[in-house]
Amino acid sequence: MLVPGDYVLSFQIRDIKNVGGDWDSFDYRVWVSVPENDGDSLIEKAVAEAGADISDTRYSVVYDFDNDNVMEAFVYIGNAPDEFATCAGKVWYVDGDRCAMIKECDNFFVHGDKVIDMYPTGDSVVVELEEAYTTSTVSYLFMLENGEWKESAISGMGYFFKPDYVSDYCVSVSAYDYCVDYEEGKEDEALYTGHTWKNYYFFYDEKSGDFKEYVGKEISEDELKAACGFDLAAEIREAGYQVDVVFKRENGIINVNYSKTERGDVGSVYKEYHNVTYNELNQRYADAWGTNGNSWQDSDFGGTYLKAITEK
User: Fold this and answer.
1) Which of 8, 14, 94, 286 would be 299's cystine partner, CB 3.0–4.6 Å?
2) The dihedral of CA 171, 174, 178, 179: what is its sign?
3) Separation of alpha carbons 78 and 251, rounded Å
4) Is the dihedral of CA 277, 259, 295, 137 positive or negative?
5) What would the pLDDT profile of 237-295 be if each residue is shown by its tens digit?
6) Could you report the per-residue pLDDT of 47-75, keeping only the tens digit for each?
């Protein structure tokens, strides 16, 4: 670790025009500052506050999270990962003035050796912690604002990640809404089953210093046809399904909810819920399960999409 001070990184880039002979060379300098607070002292401060041993510090991140030329740290103190890549412990936030425990969990999910992950957003960095469940994980997001740490408004809603088919952030929401069984006249006793994981889309809003959702706007089938350039609703009906609500989001994502209902002889009803995710910007379907397909069937995450998960 460099001692606090100002440094200049000097390097050269060679732009090769023709292999074997013709190139241009460019010299660059980047001025960087190493702020006060070294990583070791911050980690030791968290260990002392936790009443732990330094050997219990399994993972830490020391960084200038809010770009104010002062180092901060997030420190995980607890057990080593088990065979399921989970561990029990606490994560602490510490800077030159403060030290506070921000999250305690019996099942932190570990990526490789990382309990703490980071996402750059504008001129700051968001810290992510994951809590593991049997078939899904939930992300808790933290960031710095005016020298104080805060928890994001979308923390704990689902699994936070950056997908490869849009340039936005996603929260994958776990639900049991793939199918429903009930008897006619007893809809209030309906049993919903079938685990689904659906992606909802967010952007980082510099003004509020937090994430905001691309809220869906309900559109007609004619508007859907105009956006796709073909009659997607008709294709879904031809396959034997009913087209339900269609939502379009400002990032170009269109979610089409569709379903199929089967009725038994004794008044029993069984209904399956499906969806399409279509990107208007590149005219492609999402590859929901990594099958390398590009059809509306390949983009089915299962269940029913809502207008938003941040609005009631």
Assistant:
1) 286
2) negative
3) 40
4) positive
5) 999 999 999 999 999 999 999 999 999 888 899 999 999 999 999 999 999 999 999 99
6) 999 999 999 999 999 988 888 878 899 99
